[in-house]
Design a protein that fits this description.
The structure is a single chain. The chain has about 250 residues and is an alpha+beta fold. The chain is about 40% helix and about 15% strand. The strands form 2 sheets. Strands 1-6-3 form a 3-stranded antiparallel beta sheet, with no helix packed on it. It has a 3-stranded antiparallel beta sheet with strand order 2-5-4. The model is unreliable at about 85-90 (pLDDT under 50).
């Protein structure tokens, strides 16, 4: 199959690139599966198609008020921010906020009022809120899937919903087109070749029938060189550029 669409067809494709079944690839099934997992892990860590921006909805539980943090699913690799619980201090949607009063007194008819002053006032209010209130600080570590919300938890009620802006892994089981990614195919094949050479290097210079000698070290060196080349290619072509941090 030229375009693998499952884990099994992806495995067979990589082995065929190395010469199977014409050549016996001296790697075990467990080793091949480990190399596939390793390739997927590197792919999701660095490739721009390995993760996607998402919004995770979560309902606060009573235990969260005691822990002062929430647990996120395993497929989330990074949390950016969360939408504040309750109404913002300045731009809330109640009867007495500024935005409502502007809309009530000035925007009752759009035929005789321009939107420019309203837009300018909204930007000005957003600037005030950013300076005086600011975004709610968060801390997240993907190894324990814990998201700390540095806020006053005494103002939070159980059952309240929050929305977390995050990045999650693109699951190949849900999106099988990942298996047809050329870089991933080449990288996994190189990892398997490296493992193949590692296995054969234990029997270096062992004579075979007909006077041939095993040269596992050469296969290993080829695999190592291909892995390094593909990782450099990832950095220059497929990795998202780093964002600038100011402050």
């Amino acid at each position: 199959m030229a375009n693998p669409n499952s884990r099994d067809s992806f495995k067979d494709y990589c082995l065929r690139k190395l010469g199977a079944p014409v050549i016996d690839i001296n790697v075990s099934e467990e080793q091949v599966q480990d190399r596939i997992d390793e390739a997927l892990s590197y792919y999701t860590d660095y490739h721009f198609d390995g993760t996607e921006k998402a919004y995770f909805r979560y309902q606060i539980q009573p235990q969260d008020l005691i822990n002062r943090f929430i647990k996120l699913p395993d497929n989330i690799v990074g949390a950016v921010r969360f939408f504040p619980i309750g109404d913002p201090a300045v731009t809330s949607d109640n009867l007495f906020n500024i935005r409502y009063q502007i809309a009530l007194n000035d925007l009752y008819t759009l035929t005789s009022y321009t939107m420019v002053p309203y837009f300018s006032v909204r930007q000005h209010l957003a600037l005030f809120e950013e300076i005086l209130v600011g975004e709610q600080p968060i801390r997240y570590n993907r190894k324990n899937n814990v998201l700390y919300l540095d806020m006053d938890w005494n103002n939070v009620q159980p059952g309240t919903y929050i929305m977390v802006e995050c990045y999650k892994i693109v699951d190949p089981q849900t999106y099988p087109k990942i298996w047809s990614d050329r870089w991933l195919q080449n990288y996994c094949t190189a990892l398997i070749k490296k493992q193949w050479g590692e296995n054969l290097s234990k029997f270096q210079s062992m004579p075979l029938p007909g006077g041939m000698l095993l040269n596992g070290q050469a296969i290993k060196e080829e695999g190592v060189a291909e892995v390094l080349r593909l990782e450099q290619e990832m950095e220059t072509k497929y990795e998202m550029p780093l964002e600038n941090f100011v402050g």
